[in-house]
Design brief:
The protein has 389 residues and is an alpha/beta fold. It contains 15 helices and 15 strands. A seven-stranded mixed sheet has the order 2-10-9-8-7-3-4, with helices on both faces. A four-stranded antiparallel sheet has the order 11-12-15-14, with helices on one face. Strands 1-13 form a two-stranded parallel sheet. Helix 7 runs parallel beside helix 8 and helix 13 runs parallel beside helix 15. The longest helix is centred in the C-terminal third of the chain and has 25 residues. It is globular and about 60 Å long. The termini are far apart. The structure holds pyridoxal-5'-phosphate (PLP). The site of pyridoxal-5'-phosphate has 14 residues, from helix 5.
Length: 389
């Protein structure tokens, strides 16, 4: 029987040495960077403990077990069976995106991103020699969608690639099969490439239908790459392992043509952990995590309604990141600043996600109900106080 996961206690979490727990002093509650506060899935702990016992800390010998594990995972979770022959590994999703982009664009080519979006996307495009073409998500009043008309215009005027976030960080949007299908058709029409970042895909809630981009029709398989990892769902970002996936012969050739060094950067601990994460024995842990996140996203809705009625929040369909509009509080374009300084809660800065993020904060609810409650209580207490400056 699936049971919800319990987060570690604050005292335990404070002993962690990762970015989330060391960036700010102890009095600050950290709900910013995308790390989660749960113990590892038992199969991952076992795999890593065994490697430690053996001093198995060298280079990765073969990516085959990882590719096979992901293909089986995608079959069970998304009804998609990508061919392991079309996969290569690297250190992380960001690196995979940059390495693919470098090979599918020429220096100075425009690459479409859809703000508000995971801030490093802007830098990854530049790192690969491209120029960022911003086509914001469209706010439908009840959710967000890709602005296919604008994307079509950008592609028609020469943009060469789309860096898609599927599911989307920070809004938690799971793009519809129809919109992905249409995006793929447009990319095919204009000879462009779509790179789909699917790092949050394992975290789609069970009541929502997830479409891996490469399954969104024949054009998608032709024009697309997927880049993914176990790192967000299973909290393995420090272990450095990600997968790049292509289906069409042309795009597989791109992956085959990557320098061998790209694959050598895969971390062995990351690979061992990812194989354990994608194994059937970790499904129950993942289901437990999804239950916890479901409860947390609802708790957040209740807390905001009760204590911060000015906040506008739509529950995400995937992940553990909440995109909250706090403009109604009148705390300026970047409310996270005051919340950090005076409320001692660290949230991610809305404007870092693009101009569309003015007045917003991103809150990580991959933690305990107690920490979420304390964070919202601290933020709400600022409502009755004049800003310090
Ligand atoms: C959409 C998205 N892509 C990539 C990353 C970073 O992944 P990696 O550490 O594998 O580069 C994150 C991290 O939060 C993310 O949200």
């Amino acid at each position: 029987m699936t049971v919800p996961l319990q987060a570690l206690s604050l005292a335990e979490l404070r002993q962690r040495t990762s970015e989330k727990w060391r960036e700010y002093p102890e009095e600050v509650l950290p709900l910013f960077v995308a790390e989660t506060d749960f113990a590892l899935a038992p199969a991952i702990s076992r795999a890593l403990e065994e490697a430690l016992r053996l001093g198995d800390t060298g280079y990765v010998a073969s990516r085959t077990p990882l590719a096979a594990a992901y293909s089986a995972f995608a079959t069970r979770r998304f009804g998609w069976s990508p061919d392991p022959a079309g996969m290569r590994s690297t250190a992380d999703v960001s690196m995979g995106i940059v390495e693919i982009l470098r090979r599918v664009i020429q220096p100075g080519d425009r690459v479409i991103v859809n703000p508000p979006v995971y801030p490093p996307f802007f830098d990854l495009v530049t790192e690969a020699g491209g120029e960022v073409e911003r086509v914001p998500l469209r706010d439908t009043g009840t959710g967000w969608t890709l602005d296919l008309d604008q994307i079509a215009q950008s592609l028609a005027s020469g943009a060469r690639a789309v860096l898609l976030c599927n599911p989307h960080n920070p809004t938690g949007t799971v793009h519809s099969a129809e919109s992905l299908h249409a995006l793929a058709e447009l990319a095919a029409q204009y000879g462009a490439t779509v790179i789909s970042d699917e790092i949050h895909a394992p975290l789609v809630q069970p009541d929502v239908k997830y479409t891996p981009f490469l399954t969104a029709g024949p054009a998608a398989a032709e024009v697309g790459f997927a880049v993914t990892s176990a790192s967000k769902a299973f909290n393995l970002a420090g272990l450095k392992c990600a997968l790049m996936i292509a289906e069409s012969e042309q795009n597989r050739a791109v992956l085959r043509g990557l320098p061998v060094e790209v694959e050598w950067r895969t971390g062995l601990f990351g690979l061992l952990a990812a194989v354990a994460a994608f194994a059937p024995e970790s499904d129950e842990w993942l289901d437990g995590l999804l239950m916890t996140l479901d409860a947390n996203r609802r708790l957040l809705r209740e807390l905001l309604a009760e204590h911060l009625p000015e906040a506008r929040y739509r529950m995400p369909d995937a992940g553990y990141l909440a995109w909250i509009d706090l403009a109604g509080l009148g705390w300026g374009d970047n409310p996270s600043r005051r919340i950090l300084r005076e409320g001692k809660v660290a949230l991610h800065f809305g404007p870092a996600f693009g101009a569309e993020g003015r007045g917003y904060v991103r809150l990580n609810f991959g933690t305990s109900p107690e920490i979420i409650t304390e964070a919202i209580t601290r933020i709400a207490s600022l409502r009755s106080v004049e800003p310090a400056e």
